[in-house]
Amino acid sequence: MSQSLIQKYNVAGPRYTSYPTVPYWDLESFSLEGWKASLQRAFQERNTTEGLSLYIHLPFCESLCTFCGCHKRITKRHEVESPYIKAVLKEWSLYLKLLGSKPVIKELHLGGGTPTFFSPEHLNDLISGILADAELAENYEFSFEGHPNNTTEAHLTTLYNLGFRRVSYGVQDYNLRIQKAINRVQPFENVKRATDLARKIGYTSVGHDIIFGLPFQTEADVIETINKTKALMPDRIAFYSYAHVPWIKGNGQRGFKTSDLPTPDAKRLQYETGKQYFEAAGYVEIGMDHFALKSDSLYKAMEQHTLHRNFMGYTASKTKAMIGLGVSSISDSWYGFAQNVKSNEEYYKLLTQDIIPVFKGHILITEDLIIRKHILNLMCNFETQWEDEALVFKELPEVLIKLKEFELDGLLQFESKKVIVTEKGKAFIRNICMAFDLLLQRTKPETQLFSMTI
Asked: Which terminus has fewer CB within 10 Å in the chain: N or C?
């Protein structure tokens, strides 16, 4: 990839797990009652035919990984587990009361933090409590994020017996110097043990998360990590670009100097090299940052054009409504977004008052819904169209002018009332989506809000 393109397009930009992106939510017109109404609308429209998704945020970690941008609370006191699970089940009970009839769960994901911080017994209490007043969709999918150092056979067996069939492990990089810099030391043997255990128990999809662009990381480090990964052949791989956002996460991302990070050119080379190695091993690129074997459900969803992207990332299970439970979780009704409070103490306090613990959100207007569809089309299928009148919007001519620049650089091509991202353009998909982002175009941020696109 030419350095001129990298220099031209390496700007700060959203990752588009939502549209509008969080910094552009209309907080003034948002209300808890408006959020509830939007969720009830989506639930009534799709519960029986589609079901809903649940994301449960388990925020506790025993140590701080300095690459992490997630909301977490560092503690070694495991007595925090039981009160937190009781609070999450209380929040779920408030949503059940709001929805009015038994929900059909299509997808459930445990994220964090470190979900395996919690004991198998407490995880059993949590999931059993969630499922007690719900039904399961025919092809439901339960998944969780496991830490290779502390995911035990008891964790895997307990969750398997509750219906979990997919687990992802955070690997990041196998170089010890890099692991020490990001405070995430875990030898290959631990990852192999956790991967082998999951397969022995019966998990049908095991994923590994790998990050490029980490401090001190070189192309050789990426190759070495991928070679070790190939020895285990996980079903899917998330190959993430490290997002350096210390202005958001504070000292948690200042365990190393900015000068220790690879240059944009070196970082892009790490990705291109990684992609070549993954594809040579039989993996197929899925959307942005993801690879999967052809036997995995993520690949099948891409082939069937049913791939979806939300706050959990790429998923094979599209539902109109997604409820986020736990501190900082974000919910999505398709018509609106709502984020929970980020303080455990405030979360507990609101729940004792029988208040759904939302503190901000956004209700989508018609324009938002149209732009959201275009960005989802691009992020999931690398193409979008406006032959359908429902996808036409007032500023479309101006957007098409912006897209012409990408066409001149060989990053996309036009076909009638359609635009298709080229193989070369996939690396710049965030930049292409930014051309559709009307809110970003209208109000350029005065300070950096997002990580760099390269």
From this structure: N
